Amino acid sequence: MVTGIGARPAPALRRYVDSYVGFDLRGLATGVHCGPPSRLLTAVISLSDPLEMAAGVGDGSPVTRFGSVAGGLMGRSVAIHHDGRQYGVKLALTPLGSRAIYGMPAADLAHRLVPLDELLGSLGVELADRLRAASTWSARFAVLDEVLLRAVGRGADGDAVRRMRPEVAEAWRRLVAARGRVQVGEVATELGWSRRHLSERFRGEMGLTPKVFARVLRFEYAHDLATAQDRLPWPEVATISGYADQAHLVRDWNEFTGRTPTAWRHGEVLLGAGQPPTGILSRGGPG
After folding, report:
1. CB-based contacts of 203, cutoff 8 Å, min separation 6
2. Alpha-carbon distance 158 to 16, whole Å?
């Protein structure tokens, strides 16, 4: 059984938090779920057993247990080991949300999985405890709003720490809007920067260069198409998402998931059960 419910955060949080998702996955075959890279940072709070995760799929990355976990922007998928049951809450943060909520640029979390309370301190402990004590999804989403607004509020005096260069924010916005199908040099010129300067500044803020981030966006779009209810053939997925050809898609899919598209589709347990709503545990770092 695969169930899930999504919600938008409070209006005051929407610059920082893209979405909430509550998920309850049970009765699935034991396996390893491939959580692919995304344009957003992800945090997951388990409402049952700890999450068993590794920062790479099939590459020997150590598996760590987390009651709650946060991840930055990734250049590869994370591995989520499960026994057929996952029950928890996922939130997706914008890069600006990393500064506002965690008090650090997204680059400090890039390619990493970190216990959430290591970033939020006592607020992280309180958040997990209250989410587990709540009995409805609406109550849990209200807890998220309250605690995250407090996290933003406690750093209100730290504007210098929290400030992102507007050019970097605009570059991120343009890349996302184009799903990565834009020339980085053109974006740099429009912003009045050289391509090299934009790459350095963008990587210093996000942890990925604009070129790598554009590839992540293109892959993310292809992944969305591949997990849609009406699945398209791989050549159509490649064409629509902006790959030169299917071989190009296969190379990126191998790099980002550690598997060929066909092997991924055959081995992804959640696909066999029907892809859960809003990409539960399938987009955004560890989620």
Report:
1. 107, 209
2. 16
270 compared with 257, residue with greater pLDDT: 257
Torsion angles phi and psi, residue 193, rounded to 5: -120, 160
Using the predicted structure, report yes or no on whether residue 123 has a pLDDT greater than 70.
yes
Q: Which of 92, 47, 38 is nearest to 257 (CA)?
A: 38
Distance in angstroms (rounded) separating the CA atoms of residues 124 and 242: 39
Instruction: List, in sequence order, every beta strand (DSSP E) within the chain.
Output: 2-7, 17-25, 31-35, 41-46, 51-54, 64-66, 68-71, 78-82, 86-93, 113-115
Look at residue 276 and tell me whether its pLDDT is greater than 50: no
Query: Which amino acid, residue 24?
Result: D
- What distance lies between CA 280 and its chain's CA centroid? 10
Backbone angles phi, psi at 283, to 5 degrees: -140, 145
Angle between helices 210-226 and 166-177 (to 10 degrees): 30
Residue 128 and residue 139: Cα distance in Å, rounded?
13
Length in residues, the chain: 287
Q: Are 242 and 224 in contact (CB under 8 A)?
A: no
Contact 243, 253 (CB under 8 A): no
Residues 6+ apart with CB under 8 A from 79: 32, 33, 34, 35, 53, 54, 56, 57, 58, 61, 63
Summarize pLDDT for 199-210 with one digit per residue, the tens.
999 999 999 999
User: What pLDDT, in 10s, does the model give residues 220-257?
Assistant: 999 999 988 777 899 999 999 999 999 999 999 999 99
Residue 8's nearest CA partner among 128, 136, 138 is: 138
- The confidence score (pLDDT) of residue 269 equals 60
How many C-beta atoms lie closer than 10 Å to residue 112's C-beta?
A: 15
